[in-house]
Design a protein that fits this description.
This protein is an alpha/beta fold and 264 residues long. The chain has a domain at 1-92 and 170-175 and 201-264: Rossmann fold (3-Layer(aba) Sandwich), CATH 3.40.50. The protein contains eight helices and ten strands. Helix 6 (182-199) links the parallel strand 7 (170-174) and strand 8. The longest helix has 18 residues, at 182-199. 36% of the residues are buried. It binds adenosine-5'-diphosphate and magnesium ion (MG). Magnesium ion (MG) binds next to helix 2.
Length: 264
């Protein structure tokens, strides 16, 4: 497998999509004790870059994602999206969670159309694009099915199509595949890579699965400690499109070992 330094350079040229500057987060407990979860978090994500974040449970990955989403203010520092400081949630950042959380009384198509309708996008275009998105995630023919009529994996596909429908330039994903069985997870990873290459969004992806991080990402940010800090940012230098056989590549095995020992 050839290392790809290209991806770094062309992405860097497009400027940052997300800038995380000196971000620190503390909360105050009922007994007025301050607990610092993480501190001095600094990194940029280029436009169309795919960055994963890893770290032990409780180190603040979801908290960081919620700060970027605008659901939670950080204690100090700031986050910029396309150069603008974040003050609230916005349609420029879409969040994908572990549970697909579809509206149970809406068909697959109506679930996908929900965001575009709420945002006032053109009706006819949105309809055409929703049908196309469902096709893209492998669900042509299931437009009129209700979520309970679909398998868990299919519901995740609808959720992905629904997220893509709002055309947010930034996708924030919090362990989206963690609850899936190995086979479904692999097919969702393949699907995510394909749609990400088509839509070219910026992705910030939380995972506790080292192989998933290396397979999907351009870079992997490693958080560690209490309070957590960035201990290393690892490049995943493999050419795209990537196949799951990549996990047998010697460089892949070496990087996996390195991340494993960093997380220990
Ligand atoms: N406002 C709060 N009150 C109490 N605990 C909090 C608060 N905010 C964050 N925490 C704690 O901070 C830690 C980080 O949580 P989280 O971001 O979910 O970590 P991760 O996603 O890496 O597992 C957890 O131990 C959580 O309980
Ligand atoms: Mg979490």
């Amino acid at each position: 497998m050839k290392a790809q330094n290209m991806s770094e350079t062309y992405k860097r040229d497009q400027g940052p999509s997300l800038e995380i500057k000196d971000v620190t987060y503390e909360y105050v407990s009922e007994h007025s004790e301050r607990t610092r979860i993480f501190e001095d978090i600094n990194f940029d994500i280029a436009k169309r870059e795919f960055v994963s974040v890893m770290g032990t449970s409780g180190c603040g990955k979801s908290t960081l994602l919620n700060i970027i989403a605008g659901f939670l203010p950080c204690t100090s520092g700031e986050v910029l999206v396309s150069g603008e400081p974040i003050t609230a949630p916005g349609p420029d950042r879409a969040m994908v969670l572990q549970k697909p959380a579809l509206f149970p009384w809406f068909t697959a198509l109506k679930n996908v159309l929900f965001g575009p309708t709420a945002l006032g996008f053109d009706k006819e275009t949105s309809y055409r694009q929703a049908v196309e998105l469902l096709r893209e995630v492998g669900l042509a023919g299931y437009e009129n099915n209700l979520p309970h009529e679909l398998s868990g994996g299919m519901q995740h596909r609808v959720a992905l199509a629904r997220t893509l429908a709002i055309k947010a330039p930034v996708l924030l994903m919090d362990e989206p595949f963690a609850a899936l069985d190995a086979q479904t997870r692999q097919s969702m990873q393949d699907l995510l890579l394909r749609v990400w290459e088509n839509h070219q969004s910026t992705v910030f992806f939380v995972t506790h699965d080292i192989e998933e991080a290396l397979l999907l990402s351009d870079r992997v940010v490693i958080l560690k400690g209490r309070p957590a800090r960035i201990v290393e940012i690892i490049n995943s230098p493999f050419v795209r499109p990537r196949e799951s056989e990549l996990i047998l590549d010697p460089t892949f095995v070496e990087l996996r070992g390195r991340i494993r020992s960093l997380l220990r």
